[in-house]
Every structure is written in C-alpha cells, then in structure tokens.
Structure prediction request, 341 residues.
Amino acid sequence: MKTVALDGFGGPEVLRIAETEKPRPGTGAVLIQVAAAGINRADIHQRQGNYPPPPGASEILGLEVAGTIVERGPEADPRWKIGDAVCALVPGGGYAEYCVAHGGCCLPIPAVFAKNPATAMTNAASLPEAALTVWANLFDPRRLFEGDHFLIQGGTSGVGTMAIQAALAFGAHVASTAGSEDKCRFLRELGCERALNYREEDWVAGTREWASAPPDAGVDVILDMIGGDYFPKHIDLLRRDGRLIHIAFGGGAEVTLDLRKLIGKRLVVTGSTLRSRPVAEKIKLRDGVEEHLGPLLESGRIQPIVDRVYPLEEVAEAHRRMESSGHIGKIVLRIGEPRTE
Ligand SMILES: NC(=O)c1ccc[n+]([C@@H]2O[C@H](COP(=O)([O-])OP(=O)(O)OC[C@H]3O[C@@H](n4cnc5c(N)ncnc54)[C@H](OP(=O)(O)O)[C@@H]3O)[C@@H](O)[C@H]2O)c1
Prediction:
C-alpha cells in the first residue's frame, strides 16, 4: 500500500511517499481503507523526532482517519460491518491507504456530512482528535459549565475551533487568542465574545476587562497549549474555583506556581494527553463524543472547520502549512480513491 515514510527526522523534506505492507487488524480492530487523514501538530513533533509513537503503535504518522471498513479482526465490535463508512482515532498509521483502528475508537460519519459526498470524508477525518481532546478536557470529567467565562489559547487551532463551538453549544461565554487580525475576525464570526490578537494587544488586560463581573472578576476555565510564562498570568486571571487545563506546552513545560494563589482561590490545575491512553479510556471518550457532540454535529451547531485539503503526495506542503500557523482549523490529507465520495 502507499504510505508516507520518513527519511530520518527533520523538516518537511524528510517526508516521502513509499510502499509498505498492508497492515492486518488484530483482536478488537478493524482495517480501514483510508479516504482522508487529519494532520495534527503532534505529527510535526513526531516527524522532528520529538514525539515517538507509544509502544505497539504504527511508526507511520497520522492520528485520525476517515474511510471504509474493509476487514474485521477477531472479536471486533459487531456494530461495524465491512463497507461501513467511519472515522477513527488511531495511535498512528493514518497517512496510508489502509489503517488499523480499534473498533471502540471508530465513530460513524455524521449523516449530515454524507449529504455532501465531495467533502464527507475530509470533514469526518477532521473530527476524532479534536472532538475527543475537547471532550476529555472540558466535559469528562466535567470542568466547563453553562454560564462560565472560558478562555481558549490558540482558538484557531484544530482543537481550538472544536473547543469554541462545543463551549458555546453548552452555554459558556467564550474568549480566545489568535496571532492575526484575520484569525481574530474568524473567532468573532465563530461566536467568541472577545478575540484577542496576542501579537498586537495585551491579551491579559483584554481578558480581564471581558470577564470583569464584580465581585469575583476573572475567568472560570482556561484551555491552554502554551504553558511557560503564560502560566502565572493564567493563575492570576482565574477567579475562585477556576480550572486551568493544559493540553500542550509550546512555550515551556517548567513553571512556578504560587501556592498561596492556588489555595486562596481554590484553583484546579490539570491537563491530559490522548494518544497514550488505554483503549478502554478512549472508548469511554468516544462514547461521550458520540452521545453528546454527535447531535450537535448533526444539527450543524458544531461544524467541521477545514482549512485546506492536500493530496497525500503533497504531505510536505501540508506540514509546511501547519508549521507556518497560517491555517484556521484542520489540515487534511486526501488519500486513494474514496468509495463514498
Ligand atoms: N493533550 C492532548 O490530548 C492533545 C491532543 C491534541 C492536540 N494537543 C495540542 O493542542 C494544540 C493544538 O493542536 P492542533 O493540532 O489543533 O494544532 P494547530 O492546528 O497546529 O494549532 C496550534 C495553534 O496555536 C497557535 N499559537 C501558537 N503560539 C501561540 C501563542 N503564544 N498564543 C496563542 N496561540 C498560539 C497558533 O496559531 P496563532 O497564529 O494564533 O499563533 C497555531 O495555529 C497543540 O499544541 C497540540 O500539541 C494536545
């Protein structure tokens, strides 16, 4: 099968199209003929040699796919039949014509997507990683509630665009940061009450002003992918019982916490990662996404935000686009001859 191989670790130039053996689905798994694969920031880190796949996972890049089930492994969930169109969260192997996924990590393609066959698979491939990350960090366990003031750093990222839409659907007030005026305009159109261009303005002051309801001014929840020197600013921005949730630390992993502030405001500082979780946990998150975000996708309340679609052969260009941070939403690879498009 056709796949993407790495000529060592490095820049996008190490990515090349290669031929390799088609994988076989093991116990509980299905084989998907891939029509589209989502690109994630984690793929860039893996390509650079900074994010090895967890034990047992494919060495091939790619954490989410959409396509058609073509083979069932032993004891695979009887819900899935050969010919079913699904999208799936995978621990690796997505940039390929065929990919193995655990049956418990597959989701049906939303019926509303299937109405437009030209985009059904590319839209579906943009969902699993962002949807499960948002569900895991904001809703399971529940950390974001109706009426909360919620700040999202990097709101135009794949994860950010999903987090904003889900938070709005659950009745939160949302503010978000981004690195350009165009991105801020997009954030306002998406429903953010406040969009802060962190390159041009004091986002701390802007957020404080936005969430300045006395007597307990501040935000209730922050979703952060920066860390570093943002950390003390976040601690100051949170109101009593505030929750600071980390999903990455692009600005630095080591931080200093003033415990007086943590205790005084009863703050919760937490975070999580998705890829290395046991399958049982991913299945629980998949179930939560399907039950609670599924209807919002079907109704159009949450929409896939796809920046650009590249053919597999242009994977290096797709990575360059992500590294430029010029994108809004998800970047997706189109692979092979999709059956349902
Ligand atoms: N823990 C988990 O389970 C998990 C799962 C998925 C993803 N993640 C992490 O979540 C993040 C988003 O992932 P993704 O794949 O959706 O990434 P992405 O689409 O590449 O988005 C990352 C965005 O962050 C923004 N950014 C960079 N520096 C910033 C700053 N100083 N302040 C505010 N925004 C900044 C950039 O946009 P600007 O132009 O606005 O700077 C960039 O577009 C990544 O860090 C990824 O590693 C974690």
Remarks:
- Residues 40-42, 129, 133, 153-154, 156-159, 177-180, 183, 198, 225-226, 247-248, 250, 272-274, 322, 325 surround NAP (CB under 6 Å).
- The radius of gyration is 20 Å.
- The mean pLDDT is 96.
